[in-house]
């Protein structure tokens, strides 16, 4: 077998022993090139930091020479770049829990051998006094933007924003502004300013009146007059049911007229109504759906509550087998239904290429099948057909077409 010995004889002669010399990079003017090597930086290899362009190969940490990218790069105050770890060691905060991450006390002031913990600084918010009426309402000190809390248009220190009674720390959700221009939590506000009596305040099951007599309690209660007609409105401007003045807090709208909430009920069964249940009748009254159907809805077999065949004029419905209009004047030529000629209203019209149709007339001319926009076919004779009837009447004929019997048929 061939061992390849003829290739090993001149292997040493083929190898070059010349030293590898780094490619010389053209130096840029001072302050314009790479901050690390001083050479020109072209657009294809530049990395930006502090507004200066580095080579990709020079974009490394100044301490550990770790390769950096736009996420891990930290710009130091000495105009050099570092990784996050080296930046924290060199410029980060020092003290307990910082620096090298050890569990010992590290501080620039206290030695590493000291066992004393740093003292907690208690800041007096009232040390910088504000002008009267402009500082924190609790301590009177100046409130800076980083610590302000707003309540009733006034600025409070975050430290002072507590309940006046129980000193509970507050926020914008649970803070309640009292009439004494102070802030309370919801519980203390309810005890101090909320309603008193059975079931209120502390929740006891007995009557709590703060020592007031029955006459004093009755005098403090607001007066309520349930009569909606006590204030009459000008004719045509008040509630259609009672004629009283309708104010914005209690108005209900129906057919452009304003009703009292108390009067907004069915004229027949007096059921309370809302905007979903109310039906405006032609008698300028409002009704629930059931009463509206009984009074003004269609009548006959299957309508109302009686399962018998009824007619408003005593006529039999058998004379109208196809439910199409057979009385009245027909529409102008080209304006009405293409099949029956009577007027077509917007609520029932169906549109095809040749004209407009009633929903009941929108069916195949041959088989009478109901049509829609998916199976409609407009014929050249002005009628409409389903697909099957259109193919039989106007489709191609021959082998494979028409009746499909495999015989040659020619029109």
TrEMBL record:
Gene3D superfamilies: Cysteine Rich Protein. Residues 32-93, 134-195, 237-298, 335-396 form the LIM zinc-binding domain. InterPro entries: Znf_LIM. GO terms for molecular function: actinin binding; metal ion binding; structural constituent of muscle. It is found in: Nucleus. Its main location: nucleus. The keyword Metal-binding applies. The keyword Repeat applies. Keywords: LIM domain, Metal-binding, Myogenesis, Nucleus, Repeat, Zinc. GO terms for cellular component: nucleus; Z disc. One of its GO terms (biological process) is muscle tissue development. Transmembrane segments: none annotated. This is LIM zinc-binding domain-containing protein. It comes from Aquatica leii. The lineage of its organism: Eukaryota, Metazoa, Ecdysozoa, Arthropoda, Hexapoda.
């Amino acid at each position: 077998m061939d061992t390849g010995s003829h290739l090993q004889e001149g292997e040493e002669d083929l190898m070059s022993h010349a030293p590898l010399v780094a490619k010389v990079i053209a130096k840029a003017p001072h302050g314009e090139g790479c901050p690390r090597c001083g050479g020109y930086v072209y657009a294809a290899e530049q990395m930006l930091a502090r507004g200066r362009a580095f080579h990709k190969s020079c974009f490394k940490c100044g301490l550990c020479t770790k390769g950096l990218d736009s996420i891990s790069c930290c710009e130091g105050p000495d105009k050099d770049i570092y990784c996050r770890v080296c930046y924290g060691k060199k410029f980060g905060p020092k003290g307990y829990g910082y620096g090298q991450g050890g569990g010992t006390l590290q501080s620039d002031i206290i030695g590493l051998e000291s066992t004393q913990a740093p003292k907690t600084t208690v800041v007096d918010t009232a040390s910088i006094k504000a002008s009267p009426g402009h500082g924190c309402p609790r301590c009177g000190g100046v409130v800076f933007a980083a610590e302000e809390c707003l309540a009733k248009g006034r600025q409070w220190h975050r430290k002072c924003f507590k309940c006046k009674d129980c000193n509970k720390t507050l926020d914008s959700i649970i803070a309640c502004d009292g009439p004494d221009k102070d802030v309370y939590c919801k519980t203390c506000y309810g005890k101090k300013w909320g309603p008193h009596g059975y079931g209120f305040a502390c929740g006891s099951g007995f009557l709590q009146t703060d020592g007031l007599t029955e006459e004093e309690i009755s005098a403090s209660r607001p007066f309520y007059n349930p009569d909606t007609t006590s204030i009459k409105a000008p004719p045509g401007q008040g509630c259609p049911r009672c004629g009283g003045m309708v104010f914005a807090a209690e108005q209900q709208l129906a057919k452009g007229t304003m009703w009292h909430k108390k009067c907004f009920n069915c004229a027949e069964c007096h059921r309370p109504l809302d905007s979903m249940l109310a039906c405006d009748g032609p008698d300028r009254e409002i009704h629930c759906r059931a009463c509206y159907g009984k009074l003004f809805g269609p009548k006959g077999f299957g309508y109302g509550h009686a399962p018998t065949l009824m007619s408003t004029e005593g006529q039999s419905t058998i004379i109208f087998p196809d439910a199409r209009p057979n009385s009245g004047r027909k529409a102008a030529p080209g304006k009405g239904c293409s099949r029956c000629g009577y007027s077509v209203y917007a609520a029932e019209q169906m549109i095809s290429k040749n004209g407009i149709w009633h929903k009941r007339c929108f069916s195949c001319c041959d088989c009478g099948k109901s049509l829609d926009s998916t199976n409609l076919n407009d014929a050249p004779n002005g009628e409409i057909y389903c697909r099957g009837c259109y193919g039989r009447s106007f489709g191609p004929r021959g082998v494979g077409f028409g009746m499909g019997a495999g015989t040659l048929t020619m029109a």
